[in-house]
UniProtKB/TrEMBL annotation:
Lineage: superkingdom: Bacteria
Cellular component terms (Gene Ontology): plasma membrane
Organism whose genome encodes this protein: Thermogutta terrifontis
PANTHER family: LIPID A BIOSYNTHESIS LAUROYL ACYLTRANSFERASE, PHOSPHATIDYLINOSITOL MANNOSIDE ACYLTRANSFERASE
Listed CDD domains: LPLAT_LABLAT-like
Name of this protein: Lipid A biosynthesis lauroyl acyltransferase
This protein's record includes keyword Membrane: yes
Subcellular location: Cell inner membrane
Amino acid sequence: MSHLTRFGHYLVCVIVRWLIILAQAVPLQVGNALARALAWLFTRVLRVRYQVADDNLRHAFPSLSPEARRDLIERMWHHLFLMVMEVAHTPRVLHEENWRRFVDLKNVRELVKRLLEDRPVILVTGHFGNFEFGGYMLGLLGFPTHTVARTLDNPFLDRFVNAFRSARGQHIIPRVGGAEQIEAVLQAGGTMAFLADQSAGRKGCFVQFFGRPASTYKAIGLLSLQYDAPIAVVYVKRLGQPMRFEMGVKAILDPREVTVRDPVTFITQWYTTQLEEIIRESPEQYWWIHRRWKEQPRVKRCAAPEDVTENEVDGELARNVA
C-alpha cells in the first residue's frame, strides 16, 4: 500500500468517525427525521438502485401498484438510514441494566436452552430490521457469537467497524481464509451466525424465495449436518420508533430430525422459507436493493453431504459473507 493510499484510507476513516460523533450528538428523533429526508432523496430524486428494488418487489408482491412499490422502497431506505443512526447510538445508550427498555424478546426460551447445551448452534438471519443490533445484544446478554464478515478495503475503517461488532462479544471471522476458524468454533460447541439472504452464485443451492429460484449457500446445511448443530432463524424487527425492537426466534431445526433423502436441499429451503415469512410481515424493513435472483439455476438439486469435497466446503464457507 502506497503512502498516498494509506493517507486516503486514514482520511476516510477520520471523516466517518466524525460523522458518527455527529450522529451520536443528534437526538434519535432528529436522526429519524433526517433518515426520512434522506429516504425521500434516495427514492424520488437520486433513485439509488431503484430499478433493482422495484423489480424485486414487482416479483415478490405482484399485486402492488407502481406507486405502492415506490412508497415501500422509500420506507426501506428510511429503515436503512435509521439503522445507521441506531448503530451509532447503541454503545452509548444500551447496557446490562436498561436493555429491556429497548428490546422485547419473543420465543427465545428454546434458543437459550440450545445455547446453554454443549452442542454448537448456527444462527441464520437476513438483511432485515437492525441485524447489527442483534449481534451486539446477544453479546450483552452473555451469548458470544462468531460472524463471517468481508474485510473492508480500508484497514482503518475495517478495524473501527469490527471494534463495534466485537465490543460485546461478537467475534468476527474474515471471509477469506476463515473456513478453519468456522469449523473450530463449531467443533468447540460455539455459536456461528450467518446472513443467509444474498446470492451464492452459480454454484449455490437453488431454492424457492418469494416464488422464484434463488441461489443460496449450501454450507449452512452442510455445517449443521457435519457438526450436529441446530439451526435457529432469528430476527430483530423495529417496532415503530427508533431503538425499539422485537428480537425473536422464528423457528429452530435440529439436524437429527432431518431424515429426507436430500437433507442439504431440505435445510436450505427450510431456513429460506422462514426468512421469507419474517420479511413478509414487515417488507419495508428488508433490503430489497440486493440482486438476490441474479443467477439462474442449472441443476435441480443441491449436493448431498457425501458428494461435496473438502475444497467445495471451504469455498462455500468463504462465500458466506455477513
